[in-house]
Design goal:
The chain contains four helices and two strands, in the order H-H-H-E-E-H. It is mostly helical. The structure holds zinc ion (ZN).
Length: about 110
């Protein structure tokens, strides 16, 4: 996971996670671990705050934040949205399907 190809999704996931108001040590550590960092990370809230400031500057470079956090209940994983087609709300088809089924059940009890 240290190829250049892996770096872009990792950077975006991190920025998306950092810019979200729920960003805390756990959320940031989760992204780092998912993208190949090895524990222990020894992240402090101060580290996260520093990273947040850097991410906020970077976000100014993008026209918009190129992703979001999965809207599925209990997921919240960052996803990359490269545009083209309808805007994404979920990290993957599994979450999208799960939420669609849940919405359908709620609408047709
Ligand atoms: Zn998800």
């Amino acid at each position: 996971m240290h190829s250049t190809k892996a770096m872009a999704p990792r950077a975006v996931a991190l920025i998306v996670a950092l810019l979200h108001e729920r960003a805390d040590v756990d959320a940031v550590a989760r992204v780092l671990l998912e993208y190949g960092e090895r524990p222990p990370l020894d992240l402090t809230p101060h580290d996260v705050e520093t990273m947040r400031l850097a991410a906020a500057r970077l976000a100014g470079v993008f026209a918009r934040v190129p992703g979001g956090l999965c809207a599925a209940t209990g997921c919240g994983k960052p996803y990359l949205d490269l545009g083209g087609g309808s805007p994404r709300r979920y990290c993957g088809t599994r979450c999208a399907t799960r939420e669609r089924v849940a919405a359908h059940r709620a609408a047709h009890p």
